[in-house]
Amino acid sequence: MKRRGFTLIEVLMSLAIFALAAVSLGAAYSNVLLGRLALQQDEQRLDDLSRCRAALMETPGFDDVEAGGEIHLPGGRTARWEGKIEATAVSDLFAVQLIAEIERADGAEAEEFTETRMLLRPTWSIPSDRQKIRDDARQRLEKERGYKEADGNSAFISAPTRGKKLVPGQSGASGASGKGGKGQPGTPTNGQGGKGQGSKGGQPGGQPAAAPAKR
Predict the structure, then answer these.
(1) Cβ neighbours of residue 184 under 8 Å, at least 6 residues apart?
(2) Helix or strand holding residue 212 (H, E)
(3) Cβ atoms within 10 A of the Cβ of 65, count?
(4) Of the candidates 28, 44, 119, 202, which lies 20 to 30 Å from 14 by C-alpha distance?
């Protein structure tokens, strides 16, 4: 029995398929390694940036934040940070721009990161500026609402009703304010000029008195 072997074309095709599979597997493995390395670098970068952010949060003084400082990082690296403070339209609220220069682990040029955070710092405010911001906000609200806020001398606690004028000190229920002392029909009014039925024969409600019993 004569046995038939592979032809040259079949051998070349099998080698090409094997080479293509090897290249694909090698590229996939390389991508996995590069992705893992990039993830580690990102984690380290985020950790370094969080340290700079914590240093900013822990610095209480206005001038100290603008001056910034240095932080010692793992691996013998250092980071330089500083803050730029800007006032906002809200009293005691400031927009702080954090600028950090962090040294890289591979000895390359330092990377610069910038982010802006809103910080509530009453100690940074100047009393005159705080009062000016509050006055401007109050005037803006009064202009939008069309009336002033209620205080001890104000007659309105909300927007006045159109076509109805309120008078300070006037009660909403005018019938029970004691004017004229008019009672309701059929109701005794204790003798104060009402139209109610008085007591007849000594019995309330107009009922006649009972006759005395005869002996």
Answers:
(1) 194, 195, 196
(2) none
(3) 24
(4) 28
Q: What is the number of other CB atoms lying within 10 angstroms of the CB of residue 12? A: 11
For 149, the token pair is 């806020």
The CA distance from 208 to 54, in Å, is 93
Q: In 6-165, at which residue ranges do the beta strands (DSSP E only) sit?
A: 69-73, 77-87, 93-102, 111-120
Residues 41-63, buried b or exposed e (16+ Cβ, 10 A)?
eeebeeebbebbbebbeebeeee
Residue range 107-154, pLDDT digits in tens: 778 889 999 999 999 999 888 888 888 888 888 888 888 776 655 555
Cα–Cα distance between 51 and 78 in angstroms, integer?
11
CB 77 within 8 A of CB 101: no
The structure tokens 């914590």 sit at 54
